[in-house]
Amino acid sequence: MTKITSKIASTTARPTPRQSPGWQDTAGDEEAFTPLTADQARQWRASHPQLPVGRVLVMQVIIGIVVVAVAWALTGKALVAWSAAYGALVGVLPAALAAKGTARWAAPGFPPGAALAGFLLWEAVKLILAVGMLMAAPKILGVPSWPALLIGLVLTIKVYWVGLLLAQSMRSRQGQAQRAKTNGC
Average of pLDDT values for 37-65? Predict the structure, then answer.
């Protein structure tokens, strides 16, 4: 009987904790994380400028106006132009509201967990407002031109990508100017 109980005890005993070996391809390449100093952080921020939220919103409005003008020029129908304008509004209005609300939560010194919660809250508000506006489109426009409305919406939303590309080009131009100023050193 003791053989059976010792066999059960040996199979149910917890293994001793040991350090996990990590990923096989990074086992020997572990580098210690070193935080940036205040001066290094300032230099990093200067070399990686943020695109102002207001500029992205202005770009969205401009794209919305262009979409409306193209829709009007191609079809000559006011309903198509109004549908494209409403689609652009569905892209811009919730984004502006979310940007305004999120900016409050992203202030320096704000706890990161609360900032993340605020960001998620305003993203939910943005999504609910956009879906509500899309559902209200038939009541506001009558019978909207859904293709024009969705094209206006998608193009204004995709301005974020244009903003990211512009921020990247701004960074590269600043880097080139900095290298020219220091003679490449």
Answer: 84
